[in-house]
Amino acid sequence: xxxxxxxxxxxxxxxxxxxxxxxxxxxxxxxxxxxxxxxxxxxxxxxxxxxxxxxxxxxxxxxxxxxxxxxxxxxxxxxxxxxxxxxxxxxxxxxxxxxxxxxxxxxxxxxxxxxxxxxxxxxxxxxxxxxxxxxxxxxxxxxxxx
Length: 146
Ligand SMILES: *[C@@H]1O[C@H](CO)[C@@H](O)[C@H](O)[C@H]1NC(C)=O
Ligand SMILES: *[C@@H]1O[C@H](CO)[C@@H](O)[C@H](O)[C@H]1NC(C)=O
Description:
alpha+beta, 4-stranded mixed beta sheet
């Protein structure tokens, strides 16, 4: 009897600390794992990353993680026109040491593509709009990346 009540007290305390963590987490930034289980790679269809981004909101202070292996893929931050046309000639920034974690530090529209092969033409491109409201639908920080 005593034993089981101390176990249930333990569970209650555990529940409280989980709740507290979740409450604290609700005010902190969101880590968005781009593509979910697909990661950052050539998708099955050209709208995959638009579909991934649509239900989410991206806020200042959030992070985007692009999961890919160095050598098998890359990541270019580009301008809107380049995103639309898969023009790799004038990127804003090139990342190739995946996984790449980007901090969203300012409101605005951001465009990312892969310049591997014809990945961009096949839908490996992402547009996110970063707003002032808190981000949602990602994993709450802090998170441990192994
Ligand atoms: C694209 O593929 C994803 C995942 O495979 C799926 O959830 C989505 O519905 C597909 N979209 C279209 C337009 O086929
Ligand atoms: C991004 O933000 C994290 C957490 O605030 C910080 O540790 C990291 O240094 C930042 N990365 C860059 C590239 O600024």
